Backbone:
């Protein structure tokens, strides 16, 4: 089925419940259906709905990113890639070029993988998920969207319509980095997104740090973020924030790395992404 409006999708979801699955880029759901990891009576193709497939930016309201907008639109857009550095960083490494021409940030968010690349960037950028359902629309902070591995706040009769990200001024900068064991294993051992807003005097006015692949869901490092406010953007202060961020990490040990190694990487990547974010803000 290929409805032409959000209301039609909501009606179909209300009718079929969890037996209906959404098709946007299809890079995950098609594989999952073929492998029997998910089942569906109805697959709803949402690529004809403009609200879900379009994006626009304005200085007042920021970026409204349709849930089905493909990754490449972000890192190839000269203005958005500069304003939203962390999101450009993460969308540029989600799979290969072919995947990036189909996969969407909204799909990456809905999959709710603890190791997803775009989610720490969205959390660092203080993004909100715009959700449509039978009762109308509601918004949920992206930092609260994922509830567990592969699980999120969406009810069976709801869909993610867009992601709203605040406007960025010239004093803002953000960055995302991940560590992978090798190029052939394209899943983050740890991923970190950082965002900084500088004051007129060059000190840090605001900061947001988010961690991926170190807990059941991506995390907002609130204490580490707040610790930077009013301080100079120095390596020492960024390293101290990294040490605070380590305190909320509860990683597992698996074939990609031990829990001790992952915890160590949190400190390394927090320092690196904050340094890049500060440079981007200054420039």
Residues:
């Amino acid at each position: 089925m290929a409805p032409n409006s959000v209301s039609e999708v909501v009606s179909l979801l209300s009718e079929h419940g969890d037996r209906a699955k959404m098709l946007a880029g299809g890079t995950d759901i098609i594989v999952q259906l073929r492998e029997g990891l998910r089942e569906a009576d109805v697959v709803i193709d949402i690529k004809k709905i403009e609200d879900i497939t379009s994006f626009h930016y304005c200085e007042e309201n920021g970026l409204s990113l349709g849930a089905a907008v493909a990754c490449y639109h972000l890192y190839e857009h000269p203005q958005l890639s500069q304003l939203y550095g962390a999101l450009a960083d993460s969308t540029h490494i989600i799979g290969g070029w072919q995947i990036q021409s189909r996969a969407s940030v909204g799909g990456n968010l809905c999959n709710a993988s603890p190791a997803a690349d775009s989610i720490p960037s969205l959390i660092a950028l203080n993004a909100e998920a715009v959700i449509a359902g039978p009762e109308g629309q509601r918004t949920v902070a992206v930092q609260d969207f994922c509830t567990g591995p592969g699980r999120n706040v969406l009810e069976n009769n709801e869909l993610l319509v867009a992601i709203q990200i605040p406007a960025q001024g010239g004093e803002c900068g953000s960055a995302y980095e991940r560590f992978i064991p090798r190029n052939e294993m394209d899943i983050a051992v740890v991923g970190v997104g950082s965002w900084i807003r500088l004051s007129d005097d060059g000190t840090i006015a605001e900061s947001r740090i988010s961690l991926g692949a170190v807990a059941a869901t991506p995390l907002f490092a609130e204490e580490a973020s707040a610790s930077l406010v009013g301080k100079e953007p120095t390596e020492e202060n960024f390293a101290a924030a990294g040490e605070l961020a380590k305190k909320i990490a509860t990683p597992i040990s698996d074939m990609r790395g031990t829990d001790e190694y992952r915890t160590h990487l949190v400190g390394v990547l927090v320092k690196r992404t904050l340094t890049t974010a500060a440079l981007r803000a200054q420039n």
The CA atoms of residues 86 and 175 lie 4 Å apart. DSSP finds twelve helices and 13 strands in the chain. The two ends are 47 Å apart (CA to CA).
